[in-house]
Design a protein that fits this description.
Layout (H helix, E strand, L loop, with lengths): L2 H11 L3 H4 L9 H9 L10 E5 L4 H13 L5 E4 L11 E3 L6 H18 L5 H15 L4 E5 L17 E4 L7 H4 L3 H8 L9 E3 L4 H14 L3 E3 L13 H17 L24 E2 L8 E4 L5 H12 L6 E5 L8 H4 L7 E4 L10 H10 L4 E3 L3 H11 L5 E5 L2 H8 L1
Parallel strand pairs: 1-4, 1-5, 2-4, 5-6, 6-7, 9-13, 10-11, 10-13, 11-12
Antiparallel strand pairs: 2-3, 8-9
Helix pairs in contact: 3-6, 4-10, 8-9
């Protein structure tokens, strides 16, 4: 088996939310526990965990915490999702992904064992279990876990005593699974809060914060609120507050007896280097329009991104846009600026909304734009039409962002 064959089998033979949407969603953790048992319970070898949930911002918070601890000489495992280019991005140790041969050997051995036991894990269960095995073999000092979706029923929610839990901004996303209102979604995210384990809360709506606080009180979890942070137009609308949340996580970690040696850097020293596709400026010559890639795709994330875009210096804006097939576009169209040049495309994944369907949906909302056969074509089309003092922005989904970056 080659690495290409191993990854193709993982992507195509098993349920995968990023490819199939609702068909891959599981409503309990039985599958996760079965996978971990079959893999020899790698979770028992990883007692030190920081667990982060949220609708927007959790990935950059995890990356910033990982970077800060790594810079102090600790060996840190980082589990995030989804990936942009290589699924091994989900399981990094001090920024390094596992070797291809390790993945090949792992898939071959575990696939045979699962078949013998009649187990059919989802893609997320596979990669989460694989990540924990990689972290255990690497003898990490600590693991930073980002939930995949929700919290209460997320595969990552199997650690009973994390060092710190954190919940970032909460908005309307994955409503078909998590609930149709902010309080319902907040209850799902609050499911990662554990008895006696401190919880850090980032900036969020009052109705979400009240749910998180209520769950913290119920569990006897010490509640820490990350301070407000001043926005910086060039850094985007989310990084300042996510940086504040990451900083508070490090402060809370330092309170604990076995982690007093952890140094808490100044907020301005924290970095999210390694977290691609989020308010990501592309390298560009001075005589070409600036290009920004951002994977904001839900209502809250897109609204904040668009507001921040308006504050950037530009004459006209060109937006490269694609979406997945199960996205509620009615919530999206009114978030985009009225005066914008739209360039429609579809990412090269089965779950992408075909560009002809996207054109029809946009027209019903009074949005007209050009269509392209690929993300790369749409990006080139936008750049060729834009003047030097215009702004080109790639939006819609992480898959569109990934192809734009590639």
């Amino acid at each position: 088996m080659t690495f290409k064959e191993a990854t193709a089998w993982l992507f195509e033979q098993l349920p995968m939310y990023q490819r199939q949407g609702a068909a891959a969603y599981k409503t309990d953790l039985d599958g996760t526990w079965a996978v971990l048992e079959a893999m020899g319970r790698p979770d028992l070898k990883l007692p030190h965990v920081i667990h982060v949930a949220g609708t927007n911002g959790k990935g950059s918070v995890c990356q910033a915490v990982h970077n800060a601890l790594m810079d102090q000489g600790l060996k840190v495992g980082l589990f995030t999702s989804p990936h942009l280019f290589d699924f091994r991005e989900r399981m990094r140790v001090n920024g390094e992904i596992p070797p291809e041969i390790w993945v090949i050997d792992f898939v071959q051995a575990q696939r045979l064992q699962f078949e013998e036991q009649g187990l059919f894990p989802s893609f997320f269960e596979w990669t989460f279990g694989m990540a924990l095995c990689w972290f255990a073999e690497s003898h990490v000092d600590l693991v930073v876990l980002e939930t995949g979706m929700g919290g209460r029923l997320d595969s990552t929610n199997i650690f009973s005593k994390p060092l710190v839990t954190a919940v970032t901004n909460i908005g309307l996303d994955h409503t078909q699974f998590l609930g149709n209102d902010i309080r319902s979604i907040a209850r799902e995210k609050a499911g990662i809060i554990k008895e006696g384990c401190p919880v850090v809360v980032g900036r969020m709506r009052p109705e979400a914060q009240s749910v998180i606080l209520g769950q913290a009180l119920k569990e006897g979890a010490e509640f820490h609120y990350a301070p407000e942070a001043q926005d910086d137009p060039e850094q985007g609308p989310n990084w300042p507050e996510n940086r504040a949340t990451a900083h508070k996580i490090l402060e809370v970690l330092q309170y604990q007896t076995d982690w007093k040696h952890v140094r808490v850097p100044r907020q301005t020293e924290l970095s999210k280097v390694g977290h691609l596709g989020r308010w990501h400026w592309l390298e560009n010559s001075s005589d070409r329009p600036r290009v920004l890639v951002d994977c904001a795709h839900n209502e809250d994330g897109l609204r904040r991104t668009v507001e921040a875009l308006k504050a950037l210096p530009h004459e006209e804006m060109h937006v490269v846009f694609g979406a997945v097939g199960d996205k509620d576009l009615d919530r999206i169209w009114h978030q985009l600026p009225e005066k914008v040049h739209l360039h429609f495309c579809a990412a090269d994944i089965p779950r992408a909304l075909p560009v002809e369907n996207l054109i029809i949906a946009a027209a019903k909302a009074g949005r007209i734009g050009k269509s392209y056969d690929s993300v790369a074509g749409a990006l080139e089309g936008a750049k060729s039409e834009a003047a030097n003092n215009d702004l080109v922005v790639v939006l819609g989904s992480i898959f569109v962002a990934a192809e734009a970056l590639a």
